[in-house]
Design goal:
Layout lengths: L1 E5 L3 H14 L9 H4 L15 H4 L9 E5 L6 H8 L4 H4 L3 H5 L27 H18 L5 E5 L16 H9 L7 H11 L4 E3 L9 H10 L2 E4 L6 H14 L3 E11 L2 H6 L2 H19 L5 H4 L3 E8 L8 E9 L5 E9 L2 H21 L4 E2 L22 H15 L15
Parallel strand pairs: 1-2, 1-3, 3-4, 4-5, 5-10, 6-7
Antiparallel strand pairs: 6-8, 8-9
Helix pairs in contact: 1-4, 1-15, 7-8, 7-9, 8-10, 9-10, 11-13
């Protein structure tokens, strides 16, 4: 199986290096559900809890090859060194392997990501032509590497904020807009279109609109391709989806939640641009409202203040720091506070997500699933949901849905925790 990543920066190189390190027995796949998590089957008394990778026919790590596109021509070794995520003791033993992974020229337009200056860039008269070049890359990679199947996981930058417009409504309008170089067709959408047309499952790891449009949803359904997104749920937002369900479970109120981040890698630099930050902000802000449902619990959550800030601070590199101040309300209206200071490593948290999404999406494709894979919401800040439905943000409900989907696909009973397993 081939895993293609639009983007060969910090996240992609950390992911690729990590998989190769695991394959060589140098490290463990910490953070990956597909590799380290178990799944309960049947009744508790049955004591059947295999590893997910032993229960589900996922691709073996030894059977994976890697490819990427990037507007910067550095190979995976050079990019990993520049990213500064991994220490030399982890990079140097893999130098031969990483050096051989060279990025294909990217579809890139600085209008959509203003802080990156790329030289490894495709040229073409129309966006449709550029998308067809991506399709050829996919076919050539598959043939040259002897792949049976491919998966694509977006590991590129956050684009400027784009809202749904008429060009995104139907397959015909979308393809016409590509031919006419319409500004509402961003590069990430071209990758999504090309992958779907080549029957490659597509996972959107950034908050870009990308595949989250009626046109590309319809295309994925038509072509029988699984898609999912958007925006990897790694640091601060992941903790929000842990803490907020706890507040709601106890019926504690929320007056306000202030979040700020400092980040110094390429992602931080890109997000310093207001247009790109707006895309990220929309993704991060949607979480609390959906979990807490203020329309159902106005006494607890109506009008709570939610502020998100991201600051580019080069000395910090990939080691992101997130501060949260949470003003909660308890019995008789008494105020309380929760303070969180999360010193995380952005790409270290994202890398196992890339692996899991690739393996699960490939499995979904082989199982005949198509369109939005809502059961993969566990991995996303702003998960997609079918038209007319609110996405689920509660991490624990998402985890239940993920594991129950695996049980269902493998012919096992779903776990509801409702059955009486013994009688007094």
């Amino acid at each position: 199986m081939g895993i293609l990543t639009p983007g060969l920066g910090a996240v992609a190189t950390t992911f690729i290096a990590g998989v190769e390190s695991v394959r060589r027995g140098l490290t463990k796949p910490i953070g990956s559900l597909t590799q380290m998590s178990t799944i309960r089957l049947g009744k508790r008394a049955d004591k059947r809890t295999p590893l997910i990778r032993d229960f589900v026919p996922l691709a073996d790590l030894n059977d994976i090859v890697f490819g990427a596109w990037d507007p910067i021509p550095d190979n995976a070794y050079e990019s990993a060194k520049n990213a500064g995520v991994l220490e030399d003791k982890h990079i140097e033993p893999l130098k031969d392997f990483l050096t051989a992974i060279k990025p294909m020229p990217a579809v890139f337009d600085q209008h959509y990501v203003t802080r990156i200056h790329g030289t490894n860039v495709k040229q073409g008269p129309t966006k449709r032509d550029l998308a067809e070049q991506l399709r050829k890359d996919i076919r050539d990679f598959k043939a040259n590497n002897g792949c049976d199947r491919l998966v694509a996981v977006w590991c590129g930058s956050t684009e400027i904020y784009i809202t749904l417009s008429a060009v995104h409504q139907t397959i015909q309008s979308f393809e016409q807009a590509m031919a006419e170089n319409h500004p509402d067709i961003a590069p990430s959408m071209l990758y999504a279109w090309a992958c779907i047309m080549e029957h490659v499952p597509y996972c959107n790891g950034a908050p870009n609109l990308a595949v989250d449009t009626p046109a590309l949803l319809a295309l994925a359904e038509r072509e029988g391709v699984p898609i999912s997104g958007k925006d990897f749920k790694t640091g601060q937002t992941w903790l929000k989806t842990v803490i907020a369900p706890g507040l709601k479970a106890r019926m504690l109120g929320l007056a306000g939640w202030y979040s700020t981040n400092i980040l110094g890698n390429r992602d931080g630099e890109v997000l310093e641009d207001p247009a790109s930050f707006k895309t990220k902000e929309a993704s991060k802000l949607s979480v609390l409202h959906t979990i807490l449902q203020p329309e159902m619990y106005p006494d607890l959550y109506e009008g709570f203040s939610h502020v998100v800030r991201i600051n580019y601070y080069p000395p910090r590199g990939d080691n992101k720091e997130g501060w949260d101040n949470i003003d909660i309300v308890g019995w008789m209206g008494y105020p309380m506070q929760i303070k969180v200071n999360f010193l995380c490593r952005d790409s270290i948290l994202a890398a196992p997500i890339v692996l899991d999404l690739a393996l699960f999406s490939d499995f979904a494709h082989r199982a005949g699933l198509k369109g939005i894979q809502e059961w993969l919401s566990f991995y996303y800040k702003s998960p997609q949901a079918p038209a007319g439905l609110e996405p689920e943000h509660d991490l624990f409900i998402q985890q239940t849905k993920l594991k129950n989907t695996l049980r269902h696909l493998m012919g096992e009973e779903q776990i509801t925790h409702l059955g009486l397993e013994y009688h007094p």
